[in-house]
Design brief:
With 186 residues, the chain is mainly alpha-helical. 84% of the residues lie in helices and 0% in strands.
Length: 186
């Protein structure tokens, strides 16, 4: 149980680091009169990481846990359902932003201020969402799930043939996004 919960916490820490870097890059773009194309590519890549990693690994693990908690009819069921709705809405918002940045890259245009503002708002919502999961949802996991239930969840989550490949791919992208200066080319 602890291993999976610790992994979810590590995922949140990495996602937060990408979000903080994206926020810094947005601030740099706001300070300039224009935003260079390589910055748009960084925005798109960071948003892709924020969208795709949770979609392929993080959210399926959380959903398996949340599904089990809801089956137990816990008194805090509304917290779980709110979290699930947030996953869905933020996935949609992030996909739209990725598409918008890709369109700008294809057209060789700089971003309108409204797009940068939408991206900054998404960052704030993502960070708030992670904080709520860490402080409201994850404690429920330890409170309500027993060892047998954890074993079932772990088998379900780790029984993905490409799990290791997904982890390696997104870890590589994470390092690229957090260890390169925003001035580097993408």
């Amino acid at each position: 149980m602890q291993d999976l919960v610790q992994k979810l916490h590590r995922d949140h820490a990495r996602l937060a680091q990408v979000l903080f870097q994206l926020d810094q890059d947005l601030a740099e773009c706001h300070q300039c009169d224009h935003c260079e194309l390589h910055m748009l590519a960084r925005f798109r890549d960071a948003l892709s990481y924020i969208q795709e990693y949770p979609l392929h690994w993080h959210h399926p693990v959380e959903e398996a846990i949340y599904e089990r908690l809801l089956q137990k009819n816990i008194p805090e069921w509304q917290i779980i359902e709110r979290t699930q709705r947030q996953h869905e809405s933020m996935e949609e918002e992030t996909r739209k932003l990725i598409d918008d940045f890709q369109t700008l890259l294809n057209e060789g245009m700089g971003p309108p201020a409204s797009l940068l503002h939408e991206t900054a708002e998404l960052i704030a919502r993502q960070l708030d969402h992670q904080h709520r999961e860490n402080t409201e949802v994850f404690p429920l996991i330890e409170k309500y799930l027993n060892t047998r239930e954890w074993q079932e969840i772990e088998l379900r989550c780790y029984d993905v043939p490409h799990c290791a490949a997904i982890q390696r791919h997104y870890l590589s992208l994470y390092h690229h996004l957090t260890h390169h200066s925003s001035r580097s080319t993408v």
